[in-house]
Amino acid sequence: MTQPSAPGCPFHTQTPSSSLTRREPDSARADLEIDSNGVYRVSSFQMSRDLLRAEGLRQAGFMAEFTEEVGALKHLPVLYAEGEAHHEMRRDTARYFTPASVAQYQPMIAKLADTLIDELLNKGELDLDSLSLTLAVQVAAQVVGLTDSALPGLEKRVMAFVEGGGDSEPGKSKAQRFPQSLLQPAQVALFFFLDVKPAISARRKQRQDDLISHLLDKDYSDLEILTECITYGTAGMVTTREFINVAAYHLLEHPDLRAEYLHAPEKERHAILHEILRLEPVVSTLYRRAETDLNLGGHSIPKGSLLALNLQSANTDPLVAGEAGDQLCPGRSLPRGVQAPVLAFGDGHHRCPGAFLAIKESDVFLRRLLVWQDLRVISAPKVTFNEVVKGYELRGFRVSLGK
After folding, report:
1. For the residues 25-47, what does the mean pLDDT come to?
2. Is the pLDDT of residue 263 over 50?
């Protein structure tokens, strides 16, 4: 792989924009290390991409253990399925995430974005992370089919088991992973009876163009649909919310970049958002379990080993991102075959299917929000870490508008 030249970014020549969410120092790390728990930790881009594209590994992390503990699932959620079952599911559901399909959602997204900004105007100031949660949950709910809740509060119920799920790193005991193990089943039960079950009942009577209707056509059980909603649906809700927050932060912190974003055509706006995502991947670690013996970078990795892929390090690998890979620069040059977000959406057959939708809805909302010149940051976001999705959370990001 040819190393790209230093980007020479035109936007941050005086005040470079570094990562807000990076947990580890930017000092050099080995491409592959084995920690005290026997986990193989991968930091380089090439090694990470090779693993994501390789056969003989399966998904781990992000509640994979929860799915295994449920048992009795004829159909595994698409996030964890492998082989032909996974490929068939991805083919069948790809239509929900194509640019043409996403274009059908745009009027709904625009209307919702305008409603949220009107709320901000009327109240004068609000937490941006609250607005982004409503947007992300409502858009994902439309795609999945969670539109018939028995009671309001879908956002709170989704976040209850995502934020209260404890440490989900594979290999840890249930007690370690779920310190709130008594609350977790109750939170999932509420989500099922108030949100998932009503949606299933409505679609048994009349199918719609959404994921739950498709799952019913495939003879999925209620339990299987629930697990799909937890993994497929909430993954999109949580990650898109956080990306909107961090993208807004960078654009508000750098007026020159904000102006470029607002006046650019869609392709260039998306490029700016992709670069922010490269620097700030919402999910910072992806896990894989070796189902066969592997040889990786001269290391023999035995079957059953756990591999942790550090996307923050992979995305700033100098061999891919150049000398200033730890700084934000939408104009950077990447090697042939490397996409703008690098590995922020994953890679291989498990690459995020909702990547285009996430960028599109973020763009629709941010462009409408940032065009207001009197938008001001009241308090910068506090960065914490979500152990369920292995990614950052931005909270207390308060903004004012119009007052």
Report:
1. 84
2. yes
The CATH code of the domain that includes 37 is 1.10.630.10
- Would you say the pTM of this structure is higher than 0.85? yes
Q: 394 - beta bridge partners? A: 383
Q: Please report where in the chains the tokens 């470029």 appear, as a residue.
A: 260
Q: Identify how many contiguous H helices and E strands the chain contains and give both numbers.
A: 17, 12
pLDDT digit string (tens) for 167-178? 556 655 554 444
Cα 130 versus chain centre, distance: 17
User: Which domain, by its residues, includes 285?
Assistant: 32-400
What is the full DSSP assignment across 306-359?
Answer: EEEEEHHHHHT-HHHH-TTTTB--TT----TT--TTTTTT--GGGS-TTHHHHH
The pLDDT, as a whole number, for residue 163 is 72
User: Interhelix angle for 266-279 vs 355-370, to 10°?
Assistant: 110
Is 47 domain-assigned? yes
Residue 118 tokens read as: 């009107």
149, pLDDT greater than 70? yes
Answer yes or no: is 210 within a domain.
yes
pLDDT of residue 367: 97
**Total domain count, the chain:** 1
Average pLDDT over residues 68-76: 60
Closest CA to 251 of 134, 366, 381: 366
Q: Nearest-CA neighbor of 318 among 92, 17, 1, 91?
A: 1
Long-range contacts of 13-17 (CB under 8 A, 24+ apart): 15/254, 16/324, 16/327, 16/328, 17/250, 17/253, 17/254, 17/257, 17/327, 17/328
Where do the H-state alpha helices sit in 219-283? 222-228, 234-253, 255-263, 266-279
So what's the pLDDT on residue 82? 67
Cα–Cα–Cα angle for 132, 138, 142, rounded to 5 degrees = 145
Long-range contacts of 200-209 (CB under 8 A, 24+ apart): 200/225, 201/148, 202/148, 203/145, 208/145
Q: Alpha-carbon distance 362 to 247, whole Å?
A: 9
Helix (H) or strand (E) holding 286: strand 285-290
- Position 387 scores a pLDDT of 82
In a domain, 5, yes or no: no
DSSP one-letter string for 36-59? TTS-EEE--HHHHHHHHH-SSEEE
All residues at 6 or more sequence positions from 35 whose CB lies less than 8 Å from its CB, including other chains: 41
The answer as to whether 262 is a domain residue is: yes
